[in-house]
Inverse folding.
């Protein structure tokens, strides 16, 4: 959340935003998200094969935002009261950040099981940015 | 027409739920007929996200893989953009092939059956989805009844067969419409006229069929209108889910199909009614196992207003 991202920059990683496509390293078997650049595990170059995970995982860290959200999130914050931001370890082993949805984030914590769903992330310059959020199981 | 086969079906309902009683207490009476409760989209949901969820559910139910689909057809009266192809967005989110034929049907609650017909007429496996989340003005029957949900269908090799299709069209201006730039569905508000439009066009479509099936699944703007069709067409089994889902717009006749299959019906006429008015009749023989139940979290009327982005300057008790 936060830093301004142009539409072309957003578009470059649609597979990651929409389906959490990760890069599976052909050298060490580790996963890198987003699926670009060097392997985060072994630094191998040009070794990442795009792989679509199941989208299920476990919360490993969480932050709750109740005020002071970036302007593109104020409509969501007004409607929901609080936004949960989590780091999720997918069952394939890779960790991905995302927002919680369909829950009061105060009820969610480390170890809770979640499933990826696609939602409206925010709207900016009249363009809706869709992407993955996590819903508690 | 070749025999199109429905191989898989899927659905989606938003998590949030509100009862007619909760709305009625805020407004001195619940103004939609035959609805007990309904689902409410979260602030981060729209027709695109609901369509995606239903499509994933349908693809999981079918042996046809997403890479062999030739067509994606989408029906909704609530596209989140007036221009800008939401079908493309849905295809990209689902990871469909770039050579897929994509169409979006809108402008009337018949959009769901238009999408289904596009899949039926496709040359190869197809994915059709109806997703809708209508709104009205907070104090009127349309908003009280307005629900949300999505149903998706995958056509393929084995399963129920589409036996016949027909469409009947006759103008009844003002029966249900939304002005350019507005979020609120309106009606001319003449109950007898609206009932006449509904029954006349549905009966017109039924008369085009070789045989009227023993079960009907008509568009259900509320829980009362569908019964009128049953009486005028002399059919006992009329299926819809308006009582538990409210007005699901373009998705409602497909939810009716799920209800008919759940009730053990063997041959069903899906009747997509769109005000204005036109009706698509799609006769389907055979059934699939269905399960549209989803977990729900009950919300209050003030929470409902916030999720819908309604700001009340006056009216209501809150
Ligand atoms: Zn590696």
């Amino acid at each position: 959340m936060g830093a301004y991202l142009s539409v072309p920059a957003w578009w470059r990683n649609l597979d990651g935003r929409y389906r959490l496509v990760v890069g599976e390293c052909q050298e060490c078997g580790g996963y890198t998200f987003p699926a670009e650049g060097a392997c985060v595990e072994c630094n191998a170059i040009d070794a990442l094969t795009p792989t679509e995970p199941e989208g299920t995982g476990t919360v490993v860290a969480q932050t709750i935002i109740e005020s002071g959200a970036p302007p593109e999130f104020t409509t969501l914050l007004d409607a929901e009261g609080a936004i949960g931001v989590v780091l999720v370890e997918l069952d394939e082993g890779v960790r991905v950040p995302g927002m919680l949805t369909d829950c009061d984030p105060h009820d969610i914590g480390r170890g809770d099981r979640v499933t990826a769903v696609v939602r409206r992330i925010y709207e900016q310059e009249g363009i809706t940015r869709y992407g993955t959020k996590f819903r508690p199981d | 027409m070749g025999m199109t086969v429905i191989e898989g079906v899927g659905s989606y309902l938003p998590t949030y739920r509100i009862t007619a009683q909760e709305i009625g207490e805020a407004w001195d009476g619940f103004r939609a007929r035959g609805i007990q409760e309904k689902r409410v989209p979260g602030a981060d949901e729209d027709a695109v996200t609901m369509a995606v969820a239903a499509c994933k559910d349908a693809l999981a139910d079918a042996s046809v893989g997403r890479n062999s689909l030739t067509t994606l057809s989408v029906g909704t009266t609530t596209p989140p953009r007036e221009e800008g192809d939401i079908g493309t967005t849905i295809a990209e989110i689902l990871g469909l092939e770039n050579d897929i034929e994509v169409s979006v049907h809108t402008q009337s609650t018949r959009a769901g059956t238009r999408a289904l017909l596009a899949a039926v007429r496709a040359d190869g496996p197809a994915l059709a989805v109806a997703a809708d989340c209508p709104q009205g003005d907070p104090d009127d029957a349309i908003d009280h009844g307005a629900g949300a949900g999505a149903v998706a269908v995958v056509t393929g090799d084995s399963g129920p067969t589409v036996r016949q299709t027909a469409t009947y069209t006759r103008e009844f201006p003002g029966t249900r419409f939304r002005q350019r730039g507005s979020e609120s569905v309106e009606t001319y508000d003449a109950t007898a006229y609206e009932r006449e439009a509904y029954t006349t066009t549905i009966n017109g479509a039924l008369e085009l069929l070789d045989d009227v099936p023993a079960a009907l699944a008509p568009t259900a703007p509320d829980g009362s209108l569908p019964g009128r069709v049953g009486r005028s067409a002399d059919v006992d089994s009329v299926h819809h889910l308006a009582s538990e889902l409210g007005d699901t717009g373009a998705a409602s006749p497909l939810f009716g199909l799920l209800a008919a299959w759940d009730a053990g019906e063997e041959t069903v006429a899906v009747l997509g009614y769109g005000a204005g008015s036109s009706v698509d009749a799609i006769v389907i023989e055979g059934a699939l196992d269905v399960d549209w139940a989803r977990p729900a979290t009950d919300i209050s009327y003030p929470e409902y207003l916030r999720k819908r982005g309604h700001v009340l300057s006056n009216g209501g008790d809150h």
Summary: Chain B has a mean pLDDT of 94.
